C-alpha cells in the first residue's frame, strides 16, 4: 500500500514541506514516485520518518541522521558504525534524562515550598520545617 504526501503528513504529524525537505536532503532513500511524479510513501518510508523523528528528538543533527542513512544503504559493512552511533545516542539521551530529572526535582521542591508557604501565609514557613520532616520526594 502506498500513501500520498498529505496522508503521510497527517499520519506522522509533519508538514508536507518537512517531508519534501527530508527527501531533498536524502533522508528518504527508498521513496518512489508514480508515473506523474507524485511521491508514493510505503510503510517502510513511514518507518524511516518515525526513526528520523526519534533521532531528532535525541538531539542528533540532520547531518548525522543522513550519515546513518548512508551507512544503512551501504550495507552490513557499516553495522559497527551504526551500532556505535546508537550507543552514542543512548548516552546522549541518558544525559538529557539526568538533567531533566534534576530539573524535575527542583520544580517538585518549589511546588512543595510554595504549597507550604501559601498555606501558612509566609515564605518563612517551609524554611522552618526540619529536613527529616520533609516529604520523601523532596528529601531525595
UniProtKB/TrEMBL annotation:
Residues 2-71 form the HTH merR-type domain. One of its GO terms (molecular function) is DNA binding. Keywords: DNA-binding, Repressor, Transcription, Transcription regulation. The keyword Hydrolase does not apply. The keyword Repressor applies. It comes from the Bacteria. PANTHER family: MERR-FAMILY TRANSCRIPTIONAL REGULATOR, REDOX-CYCLING DRUG-SENSING TRANSCRIPTIONAL ACTIVATOR SOXR. This is DNA-binding transcriptional MerR regulator.
Amino acid at each position: 500500500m502506498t500513501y500520498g504526501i498529505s496522508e503521510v503528513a497527517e499520519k506522522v504529524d509533519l508538514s508536507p514541506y518537512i517531508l519534501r525537505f527530508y527527501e531533498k536532503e536524502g533522508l528518504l532513500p527508498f521513496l518512489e514516485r508514480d508515473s506523474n511524479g507524485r511521491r508514493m510513501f510505503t510503510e517502510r518510508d513511514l518507518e524511516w520518518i518515525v526513526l528520523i523523528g526519534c533521532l531528532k528528538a535525541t538531539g542528533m543533527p540532520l547531518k548525522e541522521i543522513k550519515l546513518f542513512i548512508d551507512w544503512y544503504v551501504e550495507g552490513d559493512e557499516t553495522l559497527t558504525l551504526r551500532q556505535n552511533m546508537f550507543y552514542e545516542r543512548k548516552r546522549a539521551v541518558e544525559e538529557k534524562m539526568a538533567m531533566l530529572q534534576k530539573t524535575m526535582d527542583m520544580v517538585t521542591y518549589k511546588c512543595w515550598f510554595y504549597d507550604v508557604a501559601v498555606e501558612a501565609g509566609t515564605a518563612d514557613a517551609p524554611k522552618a520545617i526540619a529536613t527529616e520532616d520533609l516529604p520523601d520526594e523532596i528529601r531525595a
